[in-house]
Amino acid sequence: MTTANNIKTTLPQGESAKEYLAFVEDCFRFANKSLASTLMSQLTAMKFDGSKSMQEHIIEMTNIAAKLKSLDMTVDDSFMMQFILNSLPSDYEAFQINYNVMKEKWDVNELIEKLIQEENRLKNCGCHTVNLVQGAGKS
Questions:
Q1: 61, 43 contact by CB (below 8 A)
Q2: What is the dihedral of CA 77, 79, 85, 89, to 10 degrees?
Q3: What is the pLDDT of residues 98-134, one digit of tens each?
Q4: Could you tell me where the DSSP H helices lie in 13-92?
Q5: How many CB atoms lie under 10 A from the CB of residue 81?
Q6: In angstroms, rounded to a whole number, what is the distance separating the alpha carbons of residues 40 and 75?
Q7: For residues 6 and 4, what is the distance between their CA atoms, to the nearest angstrom?
């Protein structure tokens, strides 16, 4: 078995397995930091756009939080609640206001349940939004 030349150049020149394993550990540490940064950016930038269901949207967000937890970056439930609420479009503004003025605090599962109900209510009431874009487009 041979190793390709482009891979050989990235491997340490040490003789011992201990040196090699230390090198691999350093590589994974840097990769984990990069992955954690990417996941945190994804979580904070996520927006619900209606292209998938509310449940799918929140599951995607909680999956990212679970991946962060596996990288020793636990996302607290109260932070998760805020990330979810911040990801909602303006159609859910009344829902957010009602949540913020309530004395009782929900957990993530209660929030999911209520948001699915709100999603269904908005669909059934015929509340639709239109995004207007003005300006010259490319010819």
A1: yes
A2: -140
A3: 998 988 888 989 999 999 999 999 888 865 555 656 6
A4: 17-45, 54-70, 77-86
A5: 17
A6: 10
A7: 6
